[in-house]
């Protein structure tokens, strides 16, 4: 096949491109220019869209021996990912920009352009596996290396996109990928993985939002209120600085009467009220989700699992689909789940689809699993 290899400048995408060549494909490497002002993007390993990354991708393409081009998608990225990120936080929700980037940029804008230019598919360094099911549909499954599995951030891909995608690393562990990169003479073999959000220069999401939102924010401050007593515990400068489940950075001074820490339970962006309370109040086992994206056929009812964070546990769940609404009943409760996050649905290792969490509720409560004891949703991740 004649394919495009999306090369971010990291070790994963470089090895994926090399494997595509080794498999007999005709490969062209591309790097996505996503910033209107590349000098404002990060240096080092905190992001994934730096000037250094573009240079690393070009050098890797030279070693592999493939043509290399830079595609400027900065306007599309700003509109579909950055603006969406700001709008969601202004509305009191917690988005995952890497899912949006995969949906709108890497497997929509890039794939559309690639197909228009006569290419057959796009290869990336994501850790996931593809196989053809008995019904002829392309199925996406978790990677062999569950610690690096990225099927969660790929749960937005539909059948047409999956038919034109290649994930060469899905059957390999990250240490093996680094060893292979060294054998191939790729200088990115020991390059650290990217972390955090690529367009937030210093990793300070709240500070970045405070600077960028401006008049888009519905308020510039409000009260922090105790859920039990209704007492005003402090003030804040913007609800965009909080997310459901947050423990640190509340700046409310004195501890609760029981001596236990408080967590953000609710965010009301119009009034500016942030409600805090004990961890047990974060437990949810009912989720209403909207805007589903299906990887294949649409289920009416699914007894499977749901993942609610990029590196979170799977929760056994019963999922009922009614048109564009997805009702999720968790059989084990989850903690600190925020509207705006993605719920990705699985049948075994197969990704069924994803939907955006609109609201949560509680019918039962139980102790959290170890990975749910975090205080904030972890940073999103992308294929490197």
From TrEMBL:
Keyword tRNA-binding included in the entry's annotation: yes
Localization per record: Cytoplasm
Chief place of localization: cytoplasm
Cysteine pairings via disulfide bonds: 101-198
Keyword annotations: ATP-binding, Cytoplasm, Disulfide bond, Nucleotide-binding, RNA-binding, Transferase, tRNA processing, tRNA-binding
Swiss-Prot/TrEMBL GO biological process terms: tRNA wobble position uridine thiolation
Active site: 101, 198
InterPro entries named among the record's database cross-references: MnmA-like, MnmA-like_C, MnmA-like_central, MnmA-like_central_sf, Rossmann-like_a/b/a_fold
Keyword Chaperone (UniProt): no
Pfam families in UniProt: tRNA_Me_trans, tRNA_Me_trans_C, tRNA_Me_trans_M
Broad enzyme group: transferase
Domain of life according to the entry: Bacteria
Membrane spanning stretches: none
Entry EC number(s): 2.8.1.13
Region (Interaction with tRNA): 148-150
Site (Interaction with tRNA): 126, 341
GO molecular function, one term: tRNA binding
GO CC annotations on file: cytoplasm
HAMAP family tied to this protein: tRNA_thiouridyl_MnmA
Family, similarity comment: Belongs to the MnmA/TRMU family.
Role description: Catalyzes the 2-thiolation of uridine at the wobble position (U34) of tRNA, leading to the formation of s(2)U34.
Name used for this protein in its record: tRNA-specific 2-thiouridylase MnmA
GN (gene name): mnmA
């Amino acid at each position: 096949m004649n394919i495009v290899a999306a090369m971010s400048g990291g070790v994963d995408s470089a090895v994926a491109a090399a494997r595509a060549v080794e498999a007999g494909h005709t490969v062209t490497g591309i790097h996505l220019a996503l910033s209107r002002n590349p000098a404002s993007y990060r240096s080092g390993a905190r992001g994934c869209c730096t000037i250094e990354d573009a240079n690393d991708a070009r050098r890797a393409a030279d070693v592999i021996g493939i043509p290399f081009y830079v595609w400027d998608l900065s306007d599309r990225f700003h509109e579909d990912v950055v603006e969406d990120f700001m709008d969601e936080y202004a509305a009191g929700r917690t988005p995952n920009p890497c899912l949006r980037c995969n949906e709108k940029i890497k497997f929509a804008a890039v794939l559309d352009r690639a197909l228009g230019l006569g290419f057959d598919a796009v290869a990336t360094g994501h850790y996931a596996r593809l196989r053809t099911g008995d019904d002829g549909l392309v199925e996406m499954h978790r990677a062999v290396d569950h610690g690096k599995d990225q099927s969660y951030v790929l749960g937005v891909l539909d059948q047409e996109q999956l038919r034109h995608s290649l994930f060469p690393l899905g059957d390999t562990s990250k240490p093996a990928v680094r060893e292979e990169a060294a054998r191939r003479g790729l200088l990115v073999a020991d390059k650290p993985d990217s972390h955090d959000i690529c367009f937030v220069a210093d990793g300070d999401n709240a500070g970045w939002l405070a600077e960028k939102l401006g008049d888009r924010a519905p308020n510039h401050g409000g009260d922090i209120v105790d859920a039990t007593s209704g007492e005003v515990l402090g003030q804040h400068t913007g609800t965009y600085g909080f997310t459901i489940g947050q423990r640190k950075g509340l700046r409310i001074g004195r501890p609760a009467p029981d001596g236990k820490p408080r967590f953000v339970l609710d965010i009301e962006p119009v009034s500016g009220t942030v409600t805090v309370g004990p961890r047990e109040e974060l437990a949810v086992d009912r989720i209403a989700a909207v805007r589903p994206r299906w990887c294949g056929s649409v289920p009416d009812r699914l007894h499977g699992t749901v993942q609610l964070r990029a590196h979170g546990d799977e929760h056994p769940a019963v999922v009922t689909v009614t048109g564009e609404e997805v009702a999720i009943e968790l059989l084990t409760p989850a903690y600190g789940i925020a509207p705006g996050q993605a719920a990705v649905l699985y049948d075994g290792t197969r990704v069924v689809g994803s939907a955006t969490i609109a609201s949560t509720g509680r019918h039962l409560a139980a102790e959290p699993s170890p990975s749910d004891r975090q205080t904030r949703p972890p940073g999103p991740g992308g294929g490197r």
